[in-house]
Amino acid sequence: MPAYALISDIHGNIDALNVVAESIRSDASIKRIVCLGDIIGYCPGANEVIGRLAELEKDYAIQYNLGSHDGVALGQYQFVDLNSETDAETLRAAGLYTDEAVAEEYFDVENRRFIPVRPDARNAMRWTLEHLSPASKEFLEKRLQPRIEIEPGIISVHGSPRDPIFEYVRDAKSARRCFESAAMNGVWLCFVGHTHLPVVWRLERRSLVEMAGHRVCMAPPKPVYMLRMDLQRESALYIANVGSVGQPRNRDPRACYMRFSPDERLLEHVFVEYDVAAAAARIREAGLSERLAERLRKGE
What we know:
This protein has helices at 14-25, 46-56, 68-73, 85-93, 99-106, 119-131, 134-143, 172-180, 276-285, 290-298, and strands at 3-7, 30-35, 61-65, 78-80, 114-116, 144-145, 147-151, 154-157, 189-192, 199-204, 208-211, 214-217, 222-224, 228-230, 236-241, 255-261, 266-272. It has 300 residues and is of the alpha/beta class. The strands form four sheets. It has a seven-stranded mixed sheet. β8, α8 (172-180) and β9 form a beta-alpha-beta unit. The model has no long low-confidence stretch (mean pLDDT 96).
């Protein structure tokens, strides 16, 4: 069975995507690509990134998850800066007069509209919305879906299986909630992005028990940071964060993606160097935050 490349959190960084695409092309065993969302945002290359993905579709079968920034571009959600009076007016017009009210609506998955973010993210998204071409928006409208079944028992989401677009699987506590959720019924491997941190959460199957109609982890899942990992489907369950192509936050500025071989049951994080200075220069030329440019250099 052919191998997969799993890419996530490109965030408009065309310089990073170009080198990742070439890395994928250099591996003849890879025939399919799964993009776990956040194609746009932060960096100013949204149209270029979408054009590059369209080119890759000529040679690869590609599936796409809906990411949080993508959802904003499609008008499903709106980023708001809680310290902005303009955004405060928008929230008040929607009947949300306090930060607590905004938070309450945010955690209501079915009725979520407004997403509190930092000014950098808010301003970069505003820039992206102003420059996103009709063709790019149509590309996103036609392809993105919250949850993908890659193969029986294997799924991908942007955030988490419980909350596919927005929940962060940051630590053992959040990973545990995911393993215990009904969304993981019948799933032994779930790919995620969103945190930009390449890590695999592993749970022994014997640690997950049914109790009073609920799934309960009797021991916490463990983080695994190995570059290559053999999967033990019969004895363990996994939530694998594939890392970030265009906005690494593991203090390593290299672009990161994941290779998955179903036949070998092998996961590999692949790190690729790219021209970070060129990507940072694009951010500055677009008039976006210097902090966004500096984060690329530091990988944080």
